[in-house]
Amino acid sequence: MTALFALATSLLWGLADFGGGLLTRRTPALTVVVVSQSIAALVLGGIVVATGAWSEADGRLWFAVAAGAVGPVAMLSFYKALALGPMGVVSPLGSLGVAVPVSVGLVVGERPGLLQFAGVAVAVAGIVLAGGPELRGAPVQRQAVLLTLLAAFGFGAVMALISEASTTVTGLFLALFVQRLTNIAVGGTALYVSVRRGGRALPEEGGRAVVLAALPALAFVGLADVAANGTYSIAAQNGPVTVAAVLASLYPVVTALAARGVLGERLRGIQAAGAGLALVGTVLLASG
Asked: What is the mean pLDDT of the chain?
């Protein structure tokens, strides 16, 4: 069950990242975050009311609040780092956030077998290579590296925090709802500050009409992100966190394959090798 839900997480996150990346080509990133998370919050709010999940509110919700506060900061740091580039260095470094939940698992006493340790090493190497790291070329700005490492830590922290936010399915709905509300509060504040400083909330061409036309895609991104958080939480609660975290972090492979299938982008040799290593690591982890 852990492997199944963790792989579902990587699929959902990979597709959400791909969709979000496409949307930010025309719409400001902060607007994409706020609108997509608002749609997700509306859906989750209905589920929370329908299931009576409010009755399960307890101190664990603070983990959801923390995850909701950290997530937008990590995402914005990552976007800023991508802007500074080069993307071929920034993107793979961002996947190193898997080290956070894996470390948490080891600290709390998880001891994967030799086969699983090998799977972790192979899969992480594959994840990094799937991003297509640039081994030569333009120098990397120190600020880009620092922002990317901050983003990676944030992404990993969200994984660790959301897995602690609930112990039941209905409680998970409530935790995800609280996380979304916090996302909106943090992202909305950042968007307001950005606009006050002269930034844009709407696309330069098309304005509000572009955002309205993109609502289905924004809904998909927000709901896929919610579902990924949910499946990861289930995976981490029903098996070793070290295994769940690594398998869930295969999403860069999914994003690369989606770009190949939808946009016709060709995988570089190093990305193809990374995808292959990730698959081998997945098999080792699932069979260990």
From this structure: 82
Q: What is the CA radius of gyration of the chain?
A: 18
What CA–CA distance (Å, rounded) separates 212 from 191? 18
Of 270, 213, 231, 195, give the one whose Cα is nearest residue 15.
Answer: 231
Could you tell me which residues come within 8 angstroms of residue 280 by beta carbon, excluding any fewer than 6 positions away? 122, 123, 126
d(CA 119, CA 247): 10
Q: Can you tell me the distance from the alpha carbon of 176 to that of 64, in angstroms, rounded to the nearest whole number? A: 7
- At 165-198, the pLDDT tens digits run 888 889 999 999 999 999 999 999 999 999 999 8
Of 283, 19, 237, 265, residue with least CA distance to 108: 237
Nearest to 159 by CA among 252, 80, 109, 96: 96
pLDDT of residue 63: 94
Distance of alpha carbon 278 from alpha carbon 6, whole angstroms: 14
Residue at 207: amino acid letter: G
pTM equals 0.81
Helix 87-94 with 114-130: angle, nearest 10 deg: 150
Closest CA to 286 of 14, 278, 274, 104: 278
DSSP for 92-117 reads: HHHGGGGHHHHHHHHHTT----HHHH
- Tokens representing 66 are 């923390």
Nearest to 282, CA basis, from 176, 177, 130: 130
